[in-house]
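Listing S7. Sequence submitted for prediction.
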Amino acid sequence: AADDRPVALATFTVLADIAAAVAGDHVRIESLTPAGAEIHGYEPTPQDVVRAANADLILVNGLGLEAWLGQLLTDSGGLHAVVSDGVATQLIARTSASDTSYAGLANPHAWMSPSAAAVYVDNIAAALSDLDPAHAADFAANAATYQAQLTEVREQLVADLAVVPPQQRVLVTCEGAFSYLAADVGLEEVYLWPVNAESQSTPRQVAAAIDAVKAREVPAVFCESTVSDTGMRQVAQESGARFGGTLFVDSLSEPGGPVPTYLDLLRHDAETIAAGLTGEAS
């Protein structure tokens, strides 16, 4: 049977999954990019332009994440909503004295904070209500339920990390994608490169991370699923820290994978970080 529901097209799988939880059965939610895709350097296809033009609403992260989005919106003429509007923006720090490429720009990974994600949920509910006013009450109820689940994830991670000594409360990752999460749960952040557009770490970046891990006696370091972990494994080997595991940021996995939903992604990352920093990682 024909599906006559309105269509909301999210730019990547994380946004699509959040939107699906808020929409329920009332709006068909699709993701422009597939599971496992690298969102930063994505290049839209002609088919993407068609999908965007046929969508009733396009949900975008904003904060400079979708650098390719402007032309797509121009070509498609689609209506869109920026779901990060209202989030307290974290700025990208300079990784070295010579690094000026991203320093001072907005960090786009606000969805990695359960607290910031609650703002996303409100924005998505509002956008869906504008699209389908008849079901606004359902969108609001679904949003409230989802926000309660986000709060549970954050509170559990805070509780799990309570035993980590102040000196060791440092989250060391390949990409600087965890500023919002770190602020949420009282961690400092060290990373090799600001965004995945810089997918190769330099010797200077690796050396700086090694020095930071040694100085703070950080027990474990991590890397993300969409990039090579070679540089971070070198950091672990030369600093004496463990490689604590793989974190997910920019994309969900396929349905049978480790993080088929956004809540699964948050819980996986929270459990991996907590296990690494508390010394429970194998």
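Caption to Listing S7: primary sequence and predicted structure tokens for the chain studied. The beta strands are 7-10, 28-31, 57-60, 80-82, 170-175, 188-193, 220-224, 242-247. The two ends are 50 Å apart (CA to CA).
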